[in-house]
Amino acid sequence: xxxxxxxxxxxxxxxxxxxxxxxxxxxxxxxxxxxxxxxxxxxxxxxxxxxxxxxxxxxxxxxxxxxxxxxxxxxxxxxxxxxxxxxxxxxxxxxxxxxxxxxxxxxxxxxxxxxxxxxxxxxxxxxxxxxxxxxxxxxxxxxxxxxxxxxxxxxxxxxxxxxxxxxxxxxx
Length: 172
Hints:
By secondary structure, the chain is mostly beta strands. Helix content is 6%, strand content 34%.
């Protein structure tokens, strides 16, 4: 007979320390929250720039207390504004003066100067990754890429050689 690697008293101590029922007799389910640790701050884009150096993050829109990213868009002959959440992983957006039709490709430009954004490369959905620069140096090694197809939420941030996905599939 093989002996277990623990003593029966060890098991009893572990079981006794873990409460299974509250004072009302209801079962306690474990929480996925980490006890004793504060909530981690979300990764937020606090500034991003057009090719002419205008900051696209401004106070015209606010998402969970953070200023949003404002872009001028054109689709189906109509112009308007799209406001994107600056919080990585948050797919929130809203439009003003333009109806966004699922699957449509948008022409995206700077609200302040009207400059078009450079294309970084193709997206898997058939759209194009538009480059928003994360610093005033306007470097492709420090940028945000968003897809210009309505309904596609493929986007990423690049810091030097590191590329981080903000969220995938389903930005504009």
